[in-house]
Every structure is written in structure tokens, then in C-alpha cells.
Amino acid sequence: MKRNLPLLIGGLIICLILAVMLFPQWFTKINPYGTEIFKYQHANGQAIMQSPPFPPAAGSPLGTDEMGRDILSFIIYGTRLTITLGLLVVLGRFLVALPLGLAAGFGSYICRTLISQFNVIFSAIPSLIVSVIVLKMNFFRNLDRQNSILAFVLVLTFVGWAKIGAIISERVQEILARSFITGEKAIGKSSLRIALENVVPHLATELIVLFFMEIASALAMIMQLGIFEVFVGNIRFVASTEGGVIAYVPVSFEPEWASMLAIARKFVQSAPWVVISPAVAFFISILGFNMIGEGLRVKLNQRDSKFIVQLRQLLKFQLKGKGFTKTSLIKLACTLLIIFSIFALSSPAQSSNAFSVQDAAPQYSVSTLMDQVVIGTEQAKETAERIAQAFQTIG
Questions:
Q1: Angle between helices 145-176 and 109-124 (to 10 degrees)
Q2: Could you read off the pLDDT tens digit of each residue along the chain, which spans 395 residues?
Q3: Is residue 231 within 8 Å of 82, Cβ to Cβ?
Q4: Quick check: bond before 99 cis, omega within 30?
């Protein structure tokens, strides 16, 4: 029997991603919120202070970023937020595209026009440009993490649902043209019953494949937005105020891959590990979702596949009288539970993580050691002695 290599490789990558999302502490013990602001290197009898980013070393195999945060730890703990954001975007697109695509396939003029016009608009104006313009507005840039995630999901859903809706609409029209649909209409089935009991189960295989492909597409969009300095939880620090012009540096406090690309562009030549690491993480994830989608397509299109029959039965929502049957209600409840679980993964709670933001507080910090003192006073001398003693203690 010929092996389905895309499904095998894609499945292994997705399993690894899920393991990293659920149990990041298994893969690293380094605090992703911790920073290393300088290092001392002894050369020719002199101590030379170095600033981040630091190159890969024994304690930090992928090096650190501009803020001195360990890149490996930041990528591992950023997997949950990045992948969950992609899942939420695709769920949002399907929640909009599926009902509108079904309605358009059944002949709804309004839905068909809506899908057509959205596709025309975003064919003329790239969805990436629209997303950058909207999400770079000050209103969106100043949102906290949860509201920023919601904004990303809404904007990326808005610019991407129409393509899925057009695919669904075309496939629905093809299914409705088949002879067995004529028989269903002859026995008096309504359009709603035909849609739920006949059309959706026959669309199941393509919807599953399209779902995984769309996750890869959403991750690619998130990566491109990161290059344009647009990412979840965008925080801006003032870099300079020369000439009365305020220059900002975008920084994400939360572990997230796109933010790593945003602050890494200027290190392409001087510190390439800062750019390569998040890029490879995106590449592997996009490859995994594309391969599992392709593998499922091959598997589901096999003529002797029993899985496709079982899947159609699973997705067959039968109506009884004016409502759903008990089995259909159970299926609907399970579907809602899965959606809720995906939303729960993006919760800001850190209870499942080995580290929290508070753990990043260093034992000694300049803000706690140094008060506002005047140079040359006795208070300044005491403060300098405390700072020197603190540095000596931490080596």
C-alpha cells in the first residue's frame, strides 16, 4: 500500500505544534519574559560590555533578540498565541463564508452579489495593504492583548472570507445539479433540509482540506503583517525626539512570532539569527498545515475510503418536524465546544505556563536602586555605592 507522505509529515508537524502549544515548559526552562541587557567579555585584560542581540551560545541555542530575550523560549511560548490567532481567523472566515456561500449557491441574489463585490474589491486592492492600513491606525495599535486579538480576527476575516464564500457557492451549485437532489426535492424536502442533510455532508471533504489550507494562508498573512510592523499587542517605545519628530520602535511584550520579525528587520546582516529563527518557525508551521491539507485531500478522494462515508454521516444535521433531532443537537453542541476550546487557548491566563510576567522581574533593577538624586551630594554617593554593591553581588 502506498504511503501518504504529505499526511504523515503534516500530521507529525501538527502534533509537534500542539505539544508546544499545550506544554511549552517541556521544551525550554528559560523565562520568555526575562531580558539580558548586557554581557561582559574579557579581552586583553580589559572588560568589554556588550549589548544585545547576543549570538547563539550554550545557554541560548538560538541567541537573543534586541531586548535580550531568549529567542528559543520566545518562539516556544509564542506558538500558542500565533497558531491560535491563525485558527481564530480561519474560524471567523468560515463562520461568515459558509452560510453566505450556501445561500448564494441556492440562488440568493444578495449573497451572490455580496461575495462577488468583495472579491472584486480585494482583487483590485490587495488584502495585505488593507490590513496594514487599518491595523496601523492608532486606535488598533493602542489596544491591549485580548482586544488586539479580536481586532486582528475581525480585520483578517473581513478581507479573506469572500474567497472561501465563492468556492463554497460554486461547489453548492454543482451539487444541486446532481440527480439525487432532484429526488430530494420531489419528496418535498425544503431548501434548508437539503442544505443540512445533503449539501453540507457532500461539501465536507473539500471544507476540511480548505480549512487546513486557509490556516496556512492566515499564518502567511500574519507573517507578512509582522514584516510591516503590525502584530498583536503592538507596543511602541519612543526611540528619539530629534528635530521635534518622535520616532517609535515597535515592541511586543507578549511572545508572538510576527513581532519578532517586526523588530528583526534591521538585524538581517548584523545578527541574522534574530530574523532566521521566527522565519523558520513560520515556514515549518505553514508547511505542516499545507501538507496535512494535501494529504487529507488525497485520502478523502480515494474511491474505497470509508472515512468519507463516516464523515458525511457525522456532518449530517437531520431535521425533525420544525427542529433538529437529538443526534443533530449533540453534534452541534460538540462543534460549539471545539470552537470554545480554541478560543480558550488564546486566554491571557498564564496558569498553564511555567513562567509569568512577574517572574521576569530581575533581582536588582536600576529603577529600585537609583533614586532621583543630585550629582555630587552625599545621597548620590550612597546610591552609587548601593549600585556597585548590587553589581558585585550578581557578578
A1: 120
A2: 567 888 889 989 999 999 998 888 888 888 777 666 656 555 565 656 666 677 777 777 887 777 778 888 889 988 998 999 999 999 999 999 999 999 998 888 999 999 999 999 988 888 999 999 998 887 877 777 788 889 899 999 999 899 999 999 999 888 888 888 778 777 777 777 777 777 877 888 888 889 999 999 999 999 999 888 888 865 655 555 566 655 566 666 778 888 888 877 777 777 788 888 889 999 999 999 999 988 888 887 776 656 555 555 555 555 555 555 555 555 556 555 555 555 555 454 443 445 554 454 443 334 343 445 556 677 777 888 888 887 877 76
A3: no
A4: no
Handedness of CA 13, 339, 327, 297 (dihedral sign): negative
pTM exceeds cut of 0.85: no
Q: What letters, b where the CB count within 10 A reaches 16 and e where it falls short, cover 156-167?
A: bbbbbbbbbbbb
Nearest CA among 231, 237, 319, 224 for reference residue 279: 224
Cα separation of 155 and 132, whole Å? 10
